[in-house]
């Protein structure tokens, strides 16, 4: 069995893992592992809105030039029917960091990986099933498919919502609600020149629709996993018919289209950060693996980049235990602020306040979801 030693092993080559590899690789030997090549599923990736403040983080990673060359679309205004029945406009141009972007998400993820490799990281993009263990004061990753073992003093879980290493190590993660995102990519329409993000509260969930750089239009509806309407809405005619009841959406949606409706878990979930502090030194959790944002926040990619930056600072610090504690304190604060703001966001559509989807969220998580979900140790 081959045995390789590294300064850091990053599991998961999404935006968080790739950004961290970009930051560490110039000075350290970094192994970046992912279970699957990009686009293995053949599906376009949902999650395309990036705020202007991400510019600084991409610059820190050395990934900004490649990012600019990719031709992502500048983010237009947001128009929402949320806290009132009158449309409210928000123009991101007034953001001091700039308007931000609507990403070609597949290109963005591929470019982040390419930047990590350019910075010196070794990428294994099809590592298959992994096992993480602690052995002799080092972290060890065994790849079942290749039979290879890798060891490093630093191990990072950047596996997104699957939080694969977190689960293997038996750390707790709390699922804060049961949100599902139903979404479809509608074909590009030459007559559709709308640049806005359209957001709309509904009685049992909320919508957004936006055109992505390919010209396709994303239509997404977020509702509870136990909603009786979920099954019916998995067919596009039903989804379109419900969306078109809102004039804000009907203005940009076709009468009919024949595309697949995809369903994706989109719930908020967060690590028990206090438990992370008790794990052996050198273990970090970044991006969605540590804190998965509700899509209404549009903060997931920014958090992926920001948490990678925070972890890079800690890993590069000579006083390792204090630096990891500082990282954990920062993530705990981000998590607390996020939960408070999320509750306020869901409290705003008071016309729906007593309906189950909304009441569940403004009242806060129910008792069951307050419990941390403990995964079995592998
Ligand atoms: C419906 C929806 C809409 C969203 N909209 C937005 C938006 O508009 N703006 C925004 O900023 N964010 C949005 N997000 C969130 C955003 O997509 C995520 O926050 C972001 O992708 C997190 O990056 P990450 O690197 O942490 O995880 P991911 O992007 O999920 O990357 C994780 C990587 O780990 C790999 N991996 C997983 N398991 C393993 C394993 N066992 N072994 C090895 N590798 C593994 C995966 O293949 C993947 O490459 C949305 C999310 C959803 C669900």
TrEMBL record:
Molecular-function annotations in GO: monooxygenase activity
InterPro entries, A to Z: FAD/NAD-bd_sf, Flavin-dep_Halogenase_NPB, Flavin_halogenase
PROSITE patterns: PROKAR_LIPOPROTEIN (PS51257)
Domain of life: Bacteria
Gene3D superfamilies xref list: 3.30.9.100, FAD/NAD(P)-binding domain
Chain coiled-coil ranges: none
SUPFAM superfamilies tied to this protein: FAD/NAD(P)-binding domain (SSF51905)
This protein's name: Flavin-dependent dehydrogenase
Organism encoding this protein: Tahibacter aquaticus
Lineage of origin: Bacteria, Pseudomonadati, Pseudomonadota, Gammaproteobacteria, Lysobacterales
